[in-house]
Design goal:
The chain is of the alpha+beta class. The N terminus and C terminus are likely disordered. A hairpin with a 2-residue loop joins strand 17 and strand 18. The strands form 4 sheets. Strands 15-14-13-12-11-10-21-22 form an 8-stranded mixed beta sheet, covered by helices on one side. A 5-stranded mixed β-barrel has the order 1-2-4-6-5. A 5-stranded mixed beta sheet has the order 16-17-18-19-20, with no helix packed on it.
Length: 654
């Protein structure tokens, strides 16, 4: 007897959802083009999309193959094309040089007498120029919507990986200038409102509560004290400073209540307010994703259809990547969409499982939502910050219900203060008290319980793939799920061991930024860090958090600028080719052109060039981009690769 699709073994492993496969296609296209163009392509990155496509094709039929090909292939091509056009536009425009520039301020970070400003609507020598420009100005009085005139030297920002954030934000130029002239104020109401929010908070509140309040309302946390930001990140609640689903969802829900007299049309003004709020926040990817999903929710209910979270998320992804394909590279995009994807894949099954264990429904749903978000955001968070907060598992179930109590009064009182300036001191009393209490709680608690000091590498891909395949959206039997869970655990263990332990040879990890570079050499018994140029201690610690959590046996300098950083790393010895004062007591620098650290032999070929010999192989380290002669391996400006030296053979693994 022939089987039918009603048979469990013949049902589709993944239900066909139009926008899901469209989103998968455009995302894959953006990923493929960016990986090839910027040199990030590795075989492991194809694991998840390949498995999902294979599962989606089952059961194999002409109709299903055609539908998937139409959605996935066409939108993958669209993703490639859009990303290529974006990249070419990013590279277009005036060459580097000295210009008279006019522009409108769209973002400001004020600190220590200076303002780091982002300008848009640019004119170079009177001619309109696309893109944005960053400049540091000697003033604390610059605000969004200000029209500025400047004169100075302009340089072009590069492509990823060196300038990924600028690339995503379409910041094509960086300018150096000694002064500026304010020519007026833009008529853009959203920029003017952003400036008004900043002014009223900083005029009526103390500095720290005002900075935190501005970050909560607009997502611009650059002015927040670094200690506060570190505490928030260590507590696993940094998303409160990214205007996302929590903020937009609260605003959308309150707007529905206000406009409930519109009945089934209430979602229209609520959606308009959500998008207006996105405009005030600069249309960040997380805010746009949330606003689009709210619009889909309202539209679905208006037509009496069943709302599907995964379908809504997919539509938001297609919209976001079609508008700005470079968002694929942003941490905000990956965190925001991974968090909601986790909710779509796991929250239902986890909450049902908890309720079977007699958890109250509200508690089961809260815990399930927090765990679901953490499952898929863990690899992204760790690769971004170099640690994962265990506190987040506890604080997020508390914070999510509490955030409306903090956000709504702050938003309401701020808007009333903007509308009625004479009453601003009165309106700001309550939100300032709540923000001060929030800061006090951050200062009291110790958020040092974090996972750090190791590299995930391909392990992040393994975890992400395994989690998606084990979700309730993929139809597998109990034994198949058990098998997949076992395979995921074994593969992750193998990859994790290979990434973090050196049993033979020497492992080389590198990091590069403008003005400085880091290289970590590890054998089974030694670990040596090489510092070139101006690298801060925070950057150094972040690099080590993501790669290695053990003790550093030695620090080798290729520039005197790294002395102060090396002094804080607790290494046994610091090496440089000549004598130089460290400025710190009990910290001496060994001056030698040739020296050894365990089984590693070092030789200064020049003041900024070093050769390292390990197991008969020679590694030349020179970040000046010169050609290596007679070296088995040259580490230059391409520091995205990771290498192994094994028995005299150097293998590139990433």
């Amino acid at each position: 007897m022939r089987g039918t699709l009603k048979d469990p073994d013949l049902r589709p492993r993944i239900n066909f959802r139009l926008f899901f496969f469209c989103a998968a296609g455009i995302g894959f296209g953006a990923f493929l083009y960016s990986s090839v163009r910027f040199g990030w392509l590795t075989p492991s990155q194809f694991l998840l999309p390949s498995l999902l496509l294979l599962l989606a094709l089952f059961p194999f039929s002409r109709k299903r193959l055609f539908a998937l090909a139409l959605c996935f292939v066409v939108f993958a091509g669209l993703g490639v094309g859009l990303f290529h056009l974006y990249t070419e536009r990013y590279l277009s425009g005036p060459a580097e040089g000295t210009y008279s520039v006019e522009g409108t301020v769209v973002s400001v970070t004020v600190r220590d007498g200076y303002s780091d400003v982002v300008l848009s609507r640019l004119r170079f020598g009177g001619e309109r120029t696309a893109g944005k420009l960053t400049v540091s100005l000697p003033s604390e009085e610059v605000r969004p919507a200000d029209k500025l005139s400047l004169f100075g030297k302009v340089r072009r920002n590069g492509l990823p990986p060196s300038d990924t954030n600028n690339f995503v934000d379409n910041v094509r130029f960086t300018m150096s200038t000694n002064g500026f002239t304010k020519e007026g104020t833009s008529a853009d109401l959203f920029l003017r409102l952003n400036a008004a929010i900043y002014n009223v908070l900083h005029e009526e509140m103390e500095q720290e509560p005002a900075d935190v309040g501005y970050a909560l309302l607009t997502g611009n946390s650059a002015s927040v004290d670094s200690g506060i930001l570190s505490a928030v990140r260590a507590g696993g609640i940094a998303h409160i400073f990214a205007v996302s689903g929590l903020h937009i969802g609260i605003l959308y829900g309150v707007s529905l209540l206000i406009f409930r007299f519109c009945k089934r049309y209430a979602f229209l003004p609520a959606s308009c307010l959500s998008f207006a709020y996105c405009a005030v926040c600069g249309f960040t990817v997380s805010s746009v994703r949330a606003a689009v999903m709210c619009l889909v929710l309202g539209t679905t209910r208006f037509f009496g259809k069943k709302y599907d979270l995964l379908h809504s998320l997919s539509f938001a992804a297609v919209f976001a990547l079609a508008v700005n394909p470079a968002d694929w590279l942003s941490v905000g995009f990956r965190l925001s969409f991974s968090a909601v994807l986790g909710l779509a894949l796991f929250s239902g099954s986890l909450s049902r499982g908890l309720m079977k264990w007699k958890f109250p429904r509200w508690l089961a749903q809260t815990i399930a939502a927090s765990l679901s978000v953490q499952i898929l955001t863990f690899p992204v968070l760790y690769e971004t910050f170099g640690f994962y907060s265990l506190w987040g598992l506890l604080l997020n179930p508390i914070l999510i219900p509490f955030l409306p109590v903090l956000f709504l009064p702050l938003l309401l009182c701020t808007m009333l203060s903007v509308i009625i300036p004479p009453a601003a001191p009165f309106f700001c009393i309550f939100p300032e008290g709540m923000l001060s209490l929030f800061l006090l709680l951050l200062s009291v608690f110790d958020f040092s319980a974090v996972l750090t000091g190791f590299s995930l590498g391909v392990g992040g891909t393994v975890l992400f793939t395994g989690a998606v395949l084990l979700s309730e959206r993929v139809r597998f039997g109990r034994m198949t799920r058990l098998f997949l869970a076992t395979v995921t655990a074994v593969c992750f263990g193998i990859v994790f061991t290979a990434e973090n332990f050196v049993f033979v040879g020497c492992r080389v990890d590198a990091y590069s930024r403008k003005g400085g570079d880091l290289t970590l050499l590890r054998t089974r018994d030694e670990s040596v860090l090489i510092i070139d140029g101006d690298i801060s201690i925070n950057e150094c610690v972040s690099f080590l958090n993501k790669t290695y959590g053990g003790r550093i046996d030695g620090v080798v300098l290729l520039s005197e600028k790294g002395v102060s950083t090396a002094a804080f790393l607790g290494a046994d010895k610091i090496y440089y080719y000549k004598e130089v004062a460290s400025g710190f007591q009990n910290i001496g620098i060994v001056a030698a052109e040739n020296f050894e650290v365990g089984g590693l032999s070092f030789r200064y070929e020049d003041t900024d060039k070093l050769t390292v010999t390990a197991e008969g192989s020679v590694v030349e380290i020179d970040f000046e981009g010169k050609e290596a002669v007679g070296a088995d391996l040259f580490i230059g400006t391409d520091t995205t690769a990771t290498y192994y030296l094994r028995n005299g053979t150097i293998l590139r693994i990433r």
